[in-house]
Write a structure and sequence with these properties.
Layout: E1 9-10, E2 19-20, H1 39-46, H2 57-65, E3 68-72, E4 75-76, E5 80-82, E6 89-90, H3 92-105, E7 110-113, H4 120-125, E8 131-137, H5 140-143, E9 147-162, E10 178-182, H6 185-193, E11 198-202, H7 205-214, E12 219-223, H8 224-233, E13 237-253, H9 258-273, H10 276-284, H11 286-289, H12 302-313
Parallel strand pairs: 3-7, 3-8, 10-11, 10-12
Antiparallel strand pairs: 1-2, 4-5, 5-6, 8-13, 9-12, 9-13
Helix pairs in contact: 1-10
């Protein structure tokens, strides 16, 4: 897939228009729906409940526990952020998590588990989490360890720099520089476009941002959801005017439970068909980007999506 390389993009699904990030400042407050409910509550009231779902080991564990245990971020504005006042999780991926719980259980009962870039596979493998919804890139390597529902969005890599840094205007400008990132796919994507860059790797996004502010690196590379949202919150940072790479993102699931993966794919198809995917993006991401919701990708073959993106990047 070809992403439009304009400043501060949030790339979306194939054939979708690129999303343009807006200037600095805090996210717009959530508007009330016509019925007086906040958007997340109104959305959840319309969310479907799965009918005649097949029995699977993961689904039975979720139902025995009476809740979906989901590994999520609590610091990604627009995607999954814990409201410090209400304690509720808000954002596009937070909405998907709550709607998935309702689809599986008939009620949006979710236990959120803390996560970082290195713990996602382990949380699924040891049964701590039933699902991971945290801008989780589908890669062939990860598919050997876990399964994925989806994809449910496509994103490229973007670059965050300190405001006033104009020397980094294209991907090759990262060559020979210290580039901050988290472990995993972002490092791999960086090496493909800037093989002589020196990755400075941290465990969490917060650590990466602090390192950039402190001058321990020249730029911070991560997926566009993270980059655009963080630039929106921190007026000392800005998004470089280019993107690179393209990747499919999905819901991480336990390995060797294909019926459960099929259930999650069915959930994603349903919320896309009913317009709930688009509405959640509009409620949560559009206030950051000032751009309409893109066309979502078609769920159901995460392995093919990972292979296609890997081929496109090679």
């Amino acid at each position: 897939m070809t992403l439009r390389r304009t400043a501060a993009l949030v790339a979306a699904a194939a054939c979708a228009a690129a999303l343009t990030a807006c200037g600095s400042g805090s996210a717009l407050p959530a508007a009330k729906s016509a019925g007086g409910k906040d958007p997340a509550t109104a959305l959840l009231s319309r969310a479907p409940v799965g009918k005649d779902l097949p029995s699977t080991p993961t689904l039975e564990r979720i139902r025995q526990n009476g809740r979906l245990t989901a590994a999520t971020s609590d610091t990604d504005p627009g995607f999954s952020e814990k409201n410090p006042v209400t304690g509720k999780y808000e954002g596009f991926e937070a909405d998907l998590t709550a709607m998935l719980a309702k689809y599986l259980l008939g009620k949006p009962e979710v236990k959120h588990v803390a996560i970082n870039a290195d713990t996602r596979e382990a949380l699924l493998q040891n049964g701590t989490a039933d699902a991971v919804l945290s801008t989780y890139k589908i890669t062939p390597e990860r598919l050997r360890k876990v399964s994925f529902g989806g994809p449910y969005m496509n994103l490229g890599q973007a670059v965050l720099v300190r405001k006033g840094q104009s020397a980094i205007a294209k991907a090759s400008d990262l060559d020979g520089r210290k580039v901050i990132t988290t472990a995993g796919p972002s490092v791999e994507s960086l090496k493909k476009v800037a093989p002589h860059a020196t990755p400075v790797v941290f465990q969490t996004i917060s650590q990466c941002l602090q390192a950039l502010r402190d001058g321990r690196g020249d730029a911070f590379v991560n997926n566009q959801a993270v980059i655009v949202a963080r630039a929106k919150k921190d007026t000392t940072l800005s998004v470089a005017p280019f993107t690179f790479g393209a990747a499919a993102y999905g819901i991480g699931l336990p390995k060797n439970d294909p019926k459960f993966t099929a259930i999650v794919d069915g959930f994603l198809r349903t919320v896309e068909k009913q317009g709930l995917w688009k509405q959640s993006w509009t409620d949560n991401v559009t206030p950051l980007t000032k751009a309409p919701a893109p066309q979502p990708p078609t769920p159901g073959n995460a392995g093919a999506a990972a292979s296609a993106k890997a081929s496109a990047d090679s």
